[in-house]
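Q: Here's a chain of 279 amino acids. Please give me its 3D structure as tokens.
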Amino acid sequence: MTDIIKLLWDAVLIIVIFLSLLYAALYIFQEAMLFHPQPLTPVTLDWTRKNFPNAEVKLSANDGTILHGWVYIPSGPGPYPLLLFFGGNADEMSSYLYMHKEFSGWAMGAINYRGYGLSQGQPTQQTLLADALDIYDELAQRSRIDSSRIVAFGRSLGTGIAVYLAAKRSLQGIILVSPYDSIRALAQKFNPYAPIGLLLKHPFDSLTLAPKINIPMLALVGAKDTLISPRHSKHLVNAWGGSTTLHIISGANHNTIIHDIKSGESIKIIKQFLRSIEN
């Protein structure tokens, strides 16, 4: 009996050590799992500078960190409405400028997160949320941008940043591609037995903010998205305080949905939404 008890205690000890190491790894390496900074290659930089002259900007965050990106403004005096983009966790933001022809008459802001492209610093929830406010405040005061007609456009990770911006600043509307209720909920889904609430440093809790935001929202969701399932997107949509439009894209998964957004049928849905909030 004594030997059996000893074996049981040894087994429990092994399990405790294993779980402790696993949870420590989740805590230490969560930034590497959540943020995947992308470089801005010389070829892409040269192409973007050539095709979007005068759009390149460097903005200083409140802590002095330099953020690099692009603010495309159509020719003419303006002021123009602004689409302010917040990308996914592996997006380099110059790629969003390809859509400028689809949004004739709109300015476009696409600033890389810290550590992405040519932006300085390291990404965290705290810094990315603060940077979104700084970017908004900087662009809203520009004379050729109509500060009363700013629409946030977030994809995946960026949906949480766009939702936070909507809770803190005045927006005309918000477009969310693959939105989530919270990173905490997503992490718990993939690690059902881990104490995610204690381990996670970057919860990006959009669900808590949603009921107090009363601007129109368009959500575009991939029917085959297994990373941010439609169920998590619908949680956010159902909690939203303003009017909502949910568009499910059949056949799209988490990675292919952006191709449909940039060149497929969904661009028509986005244009219709933008027209509806202008009226």
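Q: Can you summarize the key feature?
A: The chain has a mean pLDDT of 91.
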